[in-house]
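name: query_chain
kind: protein
chains: 1
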Amino acid sequence: MRIEALPPRLECPEPERWAAPDDWATETDVSTLIGDLVRALKPDFCVETGSYLGYTSQAIGLALQGLGRGHLVSLEKTLPHATKAELRCMGLPVTILPGSSLDYT
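structure:
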């Protein structure tokens, strides 16, 4: 995974302290933490609202796959992002659904 160096800005004056694939993605440490929480909690079913390009979805899917149980449904309202997330999570117990989480039941 490529990590971009981002310039300092008001909401993140010390960007060197964090790493993310791009300035819209979840920090890699946070994605790892979520995967670790899934491993610890051992859920049967997970829902993620907003998969973006699927980095955290992949971490959750890998955790579930390692557990040998559970499934993630991730909702992404931007179709090109949903498509990329789906490709990233191929072969994992993950379903990426294009659409708003407000419409999901």
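note: The longest helix spans residues 28-41.
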